[in-house]
Amino acid sequence: MKGVTIIAHPLVQHSLTRLRDKRTGPQEFRRVLSEVAALMLYEATRSFAVNRVSVRTPLAQAPGFELRREVVLVPILRAGLGMLDSILQLIPHARVGFIGLKREETTLLATSYHKSLPANLKPFEVILIDPMLATGGSAVAAMDLLSELGAKHVRLVNLVAAPEGVRHVHRHYPGLPIFTAAVDRCLNHKGYILPGLGDAGDRLFGV
Questions:
Q1: Contacts with 30 (C-beta within 8 Å, 6 or more apart), sequence order
Q2: Which of 43, 60, 137, 165 has the fewest beta carbons closer than 10 A?
Q3: 157-201 pLDDT, tens per residue?
Q4: What is the 3-state secondary structure (H, E, C) of 79-146?
């Protein structure tokens, strides 16, 4: 699908299979989700803008690069928390914002209940994190909040996506890059991804 990068690395796909397995309990689910998030981040940040710099080693001058923009990580609560820690280990200098969204079970519409973000996101690279891209309602609601704060450089990282969700997001934000380990078959009548992996938040926290 246009605008979607499917990360087919064997380690990512191996981890995804373990997360899909209904026998994987909360402790293992948390560990594997954290591992796969770190693996996916390498692909998701490949196109970060950089500036050329020069540093001095103990022996001589050496050319190098530094990130052009600071990074803000924005997990969508609650399931996005399962991907945050391992990403922070790779980008420890990143700032962290939070968006809390709840999907109404009958209308499937996302409503916001929490927002904690920098006041101006225009100077930042923003990584929006949520394991599941199902209907796309939460992603669009989150993007609306980020756009209100001036975000211009955003990429969305999901573990599993549904075609319906991808289309919904790109109708509202056609230029948004999406990085995922899989685009699954479809949504069921309750808005869950098939085959998916169930409710990521429930499986992550055992609730």
A1: 82, 204
A2: 60
A3: 999 999 999 999 999 999 999 999 999 999 998 889 999 999 998
A4: CCHHHHHHHHHHCCCCEECEEEEEECCCCCCEEEEEEECCCCCCCCEEEEECCEECCCHHHHHHHHHH
| C-alpha to C-alpha distance for 119 and 166, rounded to whole angstroms | 28
Report how far apart, in Å, the C-alpha atoms of 120 and of each of 55, 56, 60, 142, 148 are: 31, 34, 39, 15, 9
The pLDDT of residue 111 is 78
The pair of three-digit structure tokens given for residue 118, joined into one six-digit string: 């920098």
Given 3-state DSSP classes, what are the helix, strand and coil percentages for the chain, each rounded to the nearest 5? 35, 30, 35
Are 198 and 188 in contact, with CB atoms under 8 Å apart?
no
Query: Environment class of residue 69 by beta-carbon count within 10 Å: exposed (0-12), middle (13-18) or buried (19+)?
Result: middle
Q: In the numeric block, which tokens belong to residue 111? A: 């409503």
For the annotated catalytic residues, the residue numbers are 103, 107, 199, 202
Give the alpha-carbon dihedral of 163, 168, 170, 171, to 10 degrees: 140
Phi and psi dihedrals of 143, rounded to 5?
Answer: -65, -35
